[in-house]
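Tutorial handout. Part one gives the primary structure; part two gives the three-dimensional structure as tokens.
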Amino acid sequence: MNKKLWMLLAMMFATTSMLAQVNTEDDETNDEDEITVTDQKGHQEVIEFPEAMTYDLDSLLNLYMSKTYLDEDGDCNMRDINPVYTKEDYINRLSRLPNVMEMVHNDVVQKFIDRYSGRLRHSISYMLGASNFYIPIFEEALETYQLPLELKYLPIIESALNPTAVSRVGATGLWQFMIGTGKQYGLQVNSLVDERRDPVKSSYAAARYLKDLYKVFGDWNLVIAAYNCGPENINKAIHRSNGEKDYWKIYPYLPKETRGYVPAFIAANYIMTYYSQHNICPMTTRLPAKTDTVMVNRNVHMEQVAAVVGINIDLLRSLNPMYRRDVIPGATEPMPLRLPQSEVGKFIDMADSVYNYKADELLSKRSEVEIKEDAPTYYRKSTRTYKKKTTRAKRGRRAPVKRRSTGRRTRRRR
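Part two.
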């Protein structure tokens, strides 16, 4: 991968908050996490939004990389008016997408399109701008494994394009890998390093996982549903539906969030293509400086690098999002440190100064300690007594204690 492309994705890594709904009026329910759909028979069904559709936007726009490399497009008149189109218009647009995967229209899909084009329209504006950093990476990984390129929009509903996103159940990164699955596909996760946050490594891992799921199910709708809830739940739904292998036929047997997952994916493909028809303007991006990588074979703290080389520490964190506590554990194995290209030579020339800067303070773990042997040893005599539990006590009640009279008045203990 060329250095310029690496930098395109790297400068967004500082993101620690995710995207959210804005208060544009639409016909959705007031509930932030779910929608209600009424079928032709009048039955109502509650469908949960994917978690990334419920995140907050405000804090994201105040972060270092957002302020530095993303701006609103002052030349675009983004009116908060969502035009009304006919059902046939949506069906026609979806049918014209240059996709291998099936992009159908129904009431559930329409609900998600309305949410993206209405309440989440400013979040879509941000994601359109951020996609300039990430989409080339996704496409390269998907193309390597010969997968449909429309899968590049899966992180829209997984993480809202936040590389440090963490879900309620601990899934992490742009592609929201759980620890077990991430390790299964070669992503290192420990106390200091989490490669699920690395857009390049996680994208290639996700492509491999999606390819393996397709070998199992042979249907892309089932594949992305399995990506959301796990292949076991898809197999259960197939079994409960008497062997049906059509997503829309096993739909009633899926978990609530997964019922909205494929519709949300279709809606994401729609809105990322037809955003202009809904008066949505992408945020503009400025290309950051080029970067390069050096390998470190000693433990080093990012504060050491920032102070000695003279680099903003937020920029360092953005370029190296996989390091969870600002420590690069190069002593364990050689680890990459990504730097602005202009600072690579300076780091190499000043490496000793970097490693020695506040090393005792920033890298304070001891490698050897002595046991103090000349201190006196104290023993404490136990006064605890054990009483045989009665049947009544075992039932959760306090057993009565029989006392033998001594003929003397005893002082009550306080």
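Part three, for discussion. Confidence is low (pLDDT under 50) at residues 8-31, 390-397, 407-414. Strands lie at 34-38, 44-48, 70-71, 284-285, 291-296, 299-301, 327-329, 335-340.
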